[in-house]
Amino acid sequence: MAFIELYRDRLKHNYNYLEKLFEDRNIEWGVVTKLLCGNRAYIKEVINLGVREIHDSRISNLKVVKSIDPSIQTVYIKPPAKRSIKNIIKYADVSLNTEYATIRMLSDEAVRQNKKHKILIMIEMGDLREGVVGNQVLDFYGRVFKLPNIEIVGLGTNLNCLHGVMPSHDKLIQLSLYKQLIEAKFNREIPWVSGGTSVTIPLLMKNMRPEGVNHFRVGEILYFGLNLFTMEKVEGMRDDVFKLFAEIIELHEKPKVPTGELAENPSGEIAEINEEDYGKKSYRAILDIGLLDMSPEFLIPEDDRIEITGASSDMMVIDLGASDRNYKVGDLISFKLRYMGALGLLNSDYIDKKIV
Fold first, then answer.
1. Where is the Alanine racemase N-terminal domain (predicted)?
2. Ramachandran category for residue 166: left, alpha or beta (phi over 0 → left; psi -120 to 50 → alpha)
């Protein structure tokens, strides 16, 4: 069975890097754990880093967090569904919101559970995913301030999550100005301006963050050390916190070009043939992992001579070129991962999860 490993020391290294980055700039931050798909052992490793605030988009994952350490502040990071309201109040200390009707239901449930529920209102800043549009923000806040058992702790935005709109100094200034307008109009303090996620961190490194932006929700860069502007590893961080290991279950020399009439495969793809490959052979290995578990484009072979040829539901084929390079059946092939590759693997019941 293929398996994924989390390296504790590398995770700690990246956490310490980010902790210093934020501490030096007087920024509060929480760790996003949705990538871990509720894996109790992995979530425990994150908590053991010293994290006091955890963000997730699945209430079942926040339930796991609370079962490990009830004192952790839990943040639900997408607009709540009506049918989840009761559990949101039960397991999330804070939730991100964009709909008045939903916040009113949260208020009613918070009253029933005798709790004060904190909310962060998301503002639309151009990426066209979740967010209240700008000309409605003041009226929206005015209505929410009147609801019982609801405490507004901030405003925030998400960028680069849907259409790829990147954060900028100007957008973060605009976000900070909304806070000032709200505080001036309603004479209420808004503690957090939650300036974004991992994609915004390169602006911090360039000192392009307005001082008003004082809160971040961070996942991807913690686990992969990746600058999402350049798609290169951040100097001083690790990009190998996670690794995938898949076993060779077949290894033969075969033609490079398929033979026979070509039609769509089960994924709806038709093979493209390079005419220069006719008559050539190469060593091809089959690995014990497939599309059910991951997408090949998000895997990075550690042996850079390996080429991923393709995958079916339960198997992936790699090309070893003109030589088998001393590989044999039963050997493990290791891969570093991109975010979406790790997400599929960690969500799969068919992949073992280990800690090193």
1. 9-225
2. beta
The two structure tokens encoding residue 242: 């996670």
Question: Based on the domain organization, do 210 and 339 belong to the same domain?
Answer: no
Question: Are 280 and 218 members of one domain?
Answer: no
Whether the CB-CB separation of 226 and 18 falls below 8 Å is answered with: no
Q: Kindly state whether residues 78 and 202 are assigned to the same domain.
A: yes
Residue type (1 letter), 70? P
Q: Is the pTM of this model over 0.90?
A: yes
Minimum mean pLDDT range among 61-65, 235-239, 255-259: 255-259
Structure tokens at 213: 């932006």
Is residue 139 within 8 A of residue 182, CB to CB? The reply is no
Q: Look at the alpha carbons of 259, 263, 267, 270 in this order and tell me if their dihedral is positive or negative.
A: positive
pLDDT tens by residue, 155-168: 999 999 999 999 99
Question: Are 148 and 284 part of one and the same domain?
Answer: no
Classify residue 152: in a domain, yes or no. Answer: yes
Question: Residue 274: what residue type?
Answer: N
Catalytic residue among 20, 34, 115, 185: 34
Question: Could you list the residue range(s) of the whole structural domain that residue 173 is in?
Answer: 8-229
Would you place residue 280 in the very low, low, confident or very high pLDDT band (cuts 50, 70, 90)? confident
pLDDT surpassing 70 at residue 77:
yes
What's the CA gap between 91 and 75, in Å, rounded? 9
